[in-house]
């Protein structure tokens, strides 16, 4: 170091007064330095270091100036202000989506005479001609057959079916056309890509303003078309788009990719909050399922933003699905310990459904991707919509929206309920009045009537239909969420099992096993509870959520006393699904798309070393490196043009291969372009220096380009004997994009995130070439 200082001093004294100064990027920040190209991974270590330096500078300045102190306070408060804005914006958009989707869904069946902008429920609110049991029937609401022909029964019902299918096709067509024409990233759920972005990957435009606008509009159209999809996953995408756009108004988040991802983690919690009205569950969902880096301050800010979004949503749409409890339940019968057996059976069903859905959906997506089917996304969407509408309309439980179906399945039958699910003997709301000998024991009111039997076979058909059509729907080129369809599948299965257990208990109430369950004047079993447990089991089987799912279900229903059944079914579902398939649906789609996502939950048990994974291999050409001095601008530019690497190691010389540091390709390109544009005298033969010192040069030599400040002098290194288990752990916990392999200070190779993912795929007998991006 002393020798270097001496050389620097001599060279400075030697340089003639009229000699052009060496361009040093430390003197003035060059635009673009420190940014990343599309489909590349950020350097988490560098981003966190930049934020620490920025915070240290603000703190030091605040000690000497009142203005700087005020700026420091505003900088600290900016995070909370940003969370407030994200909550308000996301809640407002979700409220608009909810209102518009509800209205357009009802528009397929009819129109309100008092105003076409009223949905069915709002239309009948003001009517004085309806009873509580027939609250959905009022003279102000007309079906299309009634409006066009004047009658709604008999063969004219075909007209209603035709209008239903026509509206569904129109909504789906508009959705897919808008997505293809203006924002291709607006299709799908968005959660797989959000997980990948939060891990540090760059996908330009995925969280942009056009994606937000088109996703918001097409989400309404897709949900209204009646397709078997939900708006919950896309709302996470919408909230993250809001967060990304608002980040540009705050310098701290605009210029730092790691800080921005803290905000996006909070935004994912906001998305779940506005989807379900579950602020706590939304935060836990982000922590458990989506986020890659989730510090403690992000936890509190996420909860604050989720609360703001939930209350904003409730203010905009207080009587719709945005109320604080989406599917409020009030069960009057406590559950019994032996009921854990059917609850576990529901968990097994949920795990089997999750594994089946993931394998079937991925197989369908691969078929679409590898055949001509994927070349016609508009036709695919229209065909799926046509099949859904044609098959859904004849059955009541498939014709209604998924949210209405779930609400009805969760419902505990009361005396005034007119639903077929509540058609019990002795129930004044039902149609069956038969009473047999069991009525003498006070249990006749829970004997199934003919309406309930009809509802059971219709629900069985609806279950098969929902399971199959959801496989084909998830992944088509419209916004499509998976939460509500999975909950609907589980709720149907749970209600079927619940009614079966209820009738078994009623007919065998004198047996020892059921003797303590049934008492005169009280329900033996609550079928709605089974629907709720089945919903949690099926959603858990697909997403592999556990604690966050139980909390979300509690916030959805308000059923705090049912946490044990929910947890039993959820854990069973996860165990069964993990035994059949280790990946959740989101991780499976990440792998399908080839994103470089390093899953923190996946264990690496193989006994390989860094030398087995590093490049170059024996058959590869030598590693492309830069030297700290001795290379010209032309030589560096040729190296950049001849390679596609995202960065280059810098060594002392080609002979010694002693490591000096690492420089990113983008920073190098921008710096050389800036030097040619702004530095007088820089030509192709100008020297490129990565040293802090000014080397001796002849007076006639062109000025050199000094790039010391873009050089990372402390790149992460491992030796050739480092176990890959440790290397993988380092990449996961530090968010590295590459590390260098050395031996006794000499550079031997490099390991990138893509190399690790390929190696892990190879060890798992998967195609390593499926990892597409750097």
Strand and helix map with partners:
Elements: H1 2-14, E1 23-24, H2 44-62, H3 66-107, E2 110-112, H4 120-125, E3 141-143, H5 144-148, H6 157-182, H7 191-198, H8 209-224, H9 232-247, H10 251-254, H11 257-276, H12 279-290, H13 296-316, H14 340-370, H15 377-392, H16 396-399, H17 402-410, H18 450-473, H19 483-507, H20 512-515, H21 527-543, H22 547-557, H23 563-580, H24 585-593, H25 610-613, E4 626-627, E5 631-632, H26 633-642, E6 647-651, E7 659-664, H27 665-678, E8 687-689, E9 705-706, E10 717-719, H28 724-734, E11 738-743, E12 746-752, H29 753-763
Parallel strand pairs: 1-9, 4-6, 8-9, 10-11
Antiparallel strand pairs: 2-3, 5-8, 6-7, 11-12
Helix pairs in contact: 2-3, 3-8, 3-9, 3-11, 3-13, 6-8, 6-15, 7-24, 8-9, 9-11, 11-12, 11-13, 12-13, 12-22, 14-18, 14-19, 14-21, 14-23, 14-24, 15-18, 17-19, 18-19, 19-21, 21-22, 21-23, 22-23
Notes on the structure:
Helix 12 runs antiparallel to helix 22, helix 18 (450-473) packs antiparallel against helix 19 (483-507) and helix 21 packs antiparallel against helix 22 (547-557). The radius of gyration is 32 Å and the shape is elongated. Strands 1-9-8-5 form a four-stranded mixed sheet. A three-stranded mixed sheet has the order 4-6-7. Strands 10-11-12 form a three-stranded mixed sheet. Strand 10, helix 28 and strand 11 (738-743) form a beta-alpha-beta unit. It is mainly alpha-helical. It has 29 helices and twelve strands.
List low-confidence stretches.
Answer: 1-28, 428-442
Overall number of strands: 12
Outline, from the CA principal axes?
elongated
The helix content, as a percent range, equals 55-70%
Describe the biggest sheet? 4 strands, mixed
Rg is 32 Å
Strand content: 5-15%
Number of helices: 29
Mean pLDDT: 85
End-to-end C-alpha gap = 37 Å
- The secondary-structure class comes to mainly alpha
Strand order of the largest sheet: 1-9-8-5
Transmembrane segments: 66-88, 164-186, 207-229, 235-251, 263-287, 337-362, 374-393, 455-476, 482-505
Keywords: Antiport, ATP-binding, CBS domain, Chloride, Endosome, Ion transport, Membrane, Nucleotide-binding, Repeat, Transmembrane, Transmembrane helix, Transport
Pfam families: CBS, Voltage_CLC
Membrane topology: Multi-pass membrane protein
